[in-house]
Amino acid sequence: MDEETHSLLENGTWKIVENPERVKPFSMKWVYKIKRDAHGNVEEYKSRLMAKGYQQKQGIDFDEVYAPELGNSDFVAFMADEALFTGIVAGKRVYLVVWVDDILVAARGAERIAKVKPHLLEKFDVHDLGEATYFLGMELTRNRKARTLKLTECVGSLLYLSVCTRPDIAQAVGALARYMAGPTEAHWRAALGVVRYLAGTAEDGVTFGKSDETLVG
């Protein structure tokens, strides 16, 4: 908790102001989580300070978001996806995948990744864990020489997309997930077909329309 509090203060997550009249501040709560590695071993005990957003009221502060974000950096959110940031390093594009306080760095060439890491270390309290082997419950195993990716990892990534921003692939990905215990070459080709579809529809996503109904929850 002390580390989380120090990180929030160092990153300027909030500023202290006078409380307006007849305004009740949101309550806060601590959320605790055990972070494990690919083998299920305890890697870190984590805590996060959260605002109770469910106390927001329609028409007053309902559109406000209360969460730390990747501010004061040269990376910007990629389109509408606030979990994916992109920037230019050494003339080439670099991507950051951010999930709470876990970050993946993706770029063409290890030298660009090596340049990004000091940039992040300078601006944020982060730990360099080396080459990624585990992320969001997925074990990452690559064959760089053959340039291959395991089907389980591919489908795991597609499942994440189908839940967050691309529900249009949910049926196809759900069908693929049923064959993870014994995938065949046909299943791999089907997974690549979903990836090609995503590449051709990169501008698509979830759009929420206006409604006069009051959200209660």
UniProtKB/TrEMBL annotation:
Per the database record, which ranges form the Reverse transcriptase Ty1/copia-type domain? 11-69, 80-159
InterPro entries associated with the record: DNA/RNA_pol_sf (IPR043502), RVT_2 (IPR013103)
This protein's superkingdom? Eukaryota
Pfam families, alphabetically?
Answer: RVT_2 (PF07727)
Name assigned to this protein: Reverse transcriptase Ty1/copia-type domain-containing protein
